[in-house]
Prior knowledge:
This protein is mainly α. The protein folds into two domains: about 1-30 and about 290-475, no CATH class; about 50-210 and about 245-275. It contains 16 helices and twelve strands. Helix 1 (about 70-90) packs across helix 3 (about 155-175). Residues about 5-25 and about 30-35 have low confidence and may be disordered.
Amino acid sequence: MRQRSTALKTSMALAFAALLLAGCGGVTQGQAVSPVYDPFRVGGLPAEDGDSGVRDDAPDPQREVEFTDDGPIDRMAAQAVDDVEEYWQENYGDLDGSFQPIEILQSWDANDPSSPEICGMETYDVPNALYCIPDESMAWDRGVLVPTGMKYFGDVSVAALLGHEYGHAVQHMANLVDRSTPTVVSEQQADCFAGSYIRWVAEGKSPRFKLSTGDGLNHVLAAAITLRDPILEPGDAEMLEEGHGTALDRVSAFQIGFSGSPSDCAAIDMDDIEQRRGDLPMALPYDSSTGGVASGDMEITEESLQLLMDVLGTIYQPNDPPTLSFNEEECADATPSPPASYCPATNTISVDLSAMQELGEPASEQNNVLIQGDNTALSVLTSRYALAVQHERGESLDTPTAALRTACLTGVAQAAMSQEGDLTLSAGDLDEAVAGLLTNGLVASNVNGDTVPAGFTRIVAYRSGLSGDEDLCSARFK
Length: 478
């Protein structure tokens, strides 16, 4: 967030490293009430935890890999390529042209100084995966990238990564891109194709991998978030089209594919991306008070939280605004949901300031968490204000649908805060909220702090609010 006259910090660089998916709060119980946005489904599939990874009876890899060490890492990666190819053999039909399997597969070890040159580039100290257009080949790093993905995000995240790279090959088969295509369009289409493939895995159609739509899919989405672009600065305007996208961009494209079809992915273009981005902040501005680049992180204090309450009052315009308390309060009709709790009986939001400050402390994968910052915490307080709005409207507060409606209304407020005001959304804030929805779910929790099973569904609800209004949230989640 940016507050008028606030001194701000510089952005953090992206690191593909360790992740802690720490659950906070319980999971709601009950029957789904919305036929379209079902709290207990994920893109139409049941939301369930369970085993994810390589099947015990998975067939041996059929493809040969150049430069391989014949170890288990390359074996699993080759199985993933077999799997993605089988998906496309079954599902390419809606695209132009015809599907032709990639002929050349290669691997390298980024830890090895004698690692081979691939696609005209040195591969030592290069943890990456790629589709090489000139050679029509695909390659991956077995030394750092793939084992890191397997360790922290699971085997299916590697299959999704290779599904993304295979998506680039499909783009060229179907003549979807050329040299004039913005990089972000190419990358969003590939993210979307990966989502379509992962849907096939989650449906149980893959003979090699299995994936739960709860914890398993959460880890795949977490891997996608780690591959976001660094937060852009004023001089990075070209990266809006030539980058790979924010976490929200990448997760949104993945969700389009997971819930849709390859033809939906092929339809992604710059107009579609810009429409989804709307007026949301994409780059940090200059700080007029210092002349340097502003940062999106604001210090969380009693004063800044009260300022947020005032701003939310202007956005939601309730007849009876809730009050903010920094003391532990007894509540007759709700269970606390720290670090911020809403009590309907007293129309009070109680905040544990030290816990809120800890939740909003800037951090990233280098600190063993997904991206975290002030909006990880401020979006939680916003969600508790959203409960007060629902209470005034006479809507349920303790149901699974209320949890998603709360996320949607939080998105409404955050979109409104993208405009200039006393407290303004900054580049990176939405990524912080999306990561929080995945790791703790508090923004998508009901008055008792209970969330819904799938991080995928929580993010869908929040995204609904970013492009909607209060009435849409009430109609979609009733």
